Amino acid sequence: MYIDTKTERVLAMILHLSGFLNGALPLVVPLLIWVLKKEDSFFIKEHGRAAINFQLSVIILGIGAALFIFFTIGIGAFLVAPLAIVFGLLYVYFIIMATITASNGQLYKYPISWEII
């Protein structure tokens, strides 16, 4: 599906690029935009869902990794650390690809993401 409205494209790009912010902002920014604009635009609704689901998936994976390290008394860090590096690189790559796809007016689905909302 292609979209012609530049504002919708820019908002969709912001939804994805907010993943580079710190703290709770990678989840708060797309959630606010999605709640305010989901009724006005199918394009924003779908990109918002994708960005929020991806951020929630990252948070769940991070909590799972921290619990794994905790319950293995730190030994699990030797397994989690290399995986975290790979996942960190994929995180950046997926956000960039989602932003480029949104700027082209197309929908994007993150490959590593659970459908939570």
From TrEMBL:
Keyword Cell division among UniProt keywords: no
Domain of life: Bacteria
InterPro entries in the cross-refs: MamF_MmsF (IPR019109)
Compartments reported by the entry: Membrane
Major place of residence: membrane
Membrane topology: Multi-pass membrane protein
Alphabetical keyword list: Membrane, Transmembrane, Transmembrane helix
Ranges that cross the membrane: 12-36, 56-77, 83-102
Name of the protein: DUF4870 domain-containing protein
Organism, scientific name: Wenyingzhuangia heitensis
